[in-house]
Fold this protein.
Amino acid sequence: MAASRINREKLTIRRMISLYAKRCPQAMSEEGHYAALNVYADKRLDKCVFGEEKPACKQCPVHCYQPAKREEMKQIMRWAGPRMLWRHPILTVLHLLDDRRPVPELPEKYRPKK
Ligand code: SF4
């Protein structure tokens, strides 16, 4: 499944959300909450204006997430990030490399008009 950058990122996010939902003591118990968050994150990735050239979301100048969902994802990543290395080392290393990619210029149709 992880042939493209977007698909790989979807897989990484799915693993992180799943780990958080199952193991983090602060995880919400509301049924379906994390499945819905995962669907939301997938949709954001499907619509990412940078496509396959996307930067790490935390460095993105667009920030397409709703503020509350962005905060929740940050919390999940902070908790799950260090724990991912042992469970999914290849995905984690690739994710860390993605974090170092420079932020590309916005595609022309999304740039502010001068
Ligand atoms: S935050 Fe930026 S990089 Fe991440 S999915 Fe949204 S537009 Fe793409």
Q: What stands out?
A: The mean pLDDT is 92. Helices lie at 5-23, 33-46, 67-87, 89-99. The longest helix spans residues 67-87.
